[in-house]
Amino acid sequence: QIDDLAEVDYSLSGLPAVFQPFIDLDLKGTVFPAGNHTDSPYVAASFTIPDQSDSMLYLAFSEYFFQSSSFAYYTAGAFNMTIAEETCSYFNINSEIFSSIIPKVAKYSVTPYPVMLKLMSTEIPIISLQQDSLTVEIQGSVEVLAILPDSTTQSLFTLNIAANTSISLNIFDQKLTGSLCLNR
């Protein structure tokens, strides 16, 4: 069990290869929604680790591991969240701000009301590995809701979003660091 949403199965995908200086273990790591071992829509492809012998332990993760993780967390609803009124009021986000950007909102919301944001992933995020980075493509939507005085909500508008980000990991001063870049 990784957390409340996902668990991992890391079974051997072949017999261990034992050589004089090392042991080679091929594990197939598949991430599933917690309590639901449904087959991932992805196919695991084999890959090789560059031949190096200057370290005691080498770990490698394939695209399949990240893709099955993305599928498991998407299936469990981890990419859907609500940003509550308290957080929006902290940043002073209200319906009046959106009225100045989107004139149609002004017709529905004359009085400035607090807002709530609902973020939803509409497709399984696609994760791909490049030589020096990991790319994540996310399709989703953001619904902006006005919170009315009687505690009901009124949808102001919905934005569909497609984002492509790259994450590069580096070891700097014996620490693993990362940088995030929004490509589009």
TrEMBL record:
Function per UniProt: The cytotoxic action of BPI is limited to many species of Gram-negative bacteria; this specificity may be explained by a strong affinity of the very basic N-terminal half for the negatively charged lipopolysaccharides that are unique to the Gram-negative bacterial outer envelope.
Pfam families: LBP_BPI_CETP_C (PF02886)
Domain of life: Eukaryota
Ranges that cross the membrane: none
Species this protein is from: Emberiza fucata
GO terms of molecular function: lipid binding
Known partners and oligomeric status: Monomer. Homodimer; disulfide-linked.
Protein's name in the database: Bactericidal permeability-increasing protein
Stretches assigned to the Lipid-binding serum glycoprotein C-terminal domain: 51-184
Compartments, record wording: Secreted
Keyword check for Signal: yes
Gene Ontology CC annotations of this record: extracellular space
Biological process annotations from GO: defense response to Gram-negative bacterium; innate immune response
PANTHER family membership: BACTERICIDAL PERMEABILITY-INCREASING BPI PROTEIN-RELATED, BPI FOLD-CONTAINING FAMILY C PROTEIN
SMART domains reported for this sequence: BPI2 (SM00329)
Family annotation (Gene3D superfamilies): Bactericidal permeability-increasing protein, domain 2
Keywords: Antibiotic, Antimicrobial, Disulfide bond, Glycoprotein, Immunity, Innate immunity, Secreted, Signal
Domain notes: The N- and C-terminal barrels adopt an identical fold despite having only 13% of conserved residues.
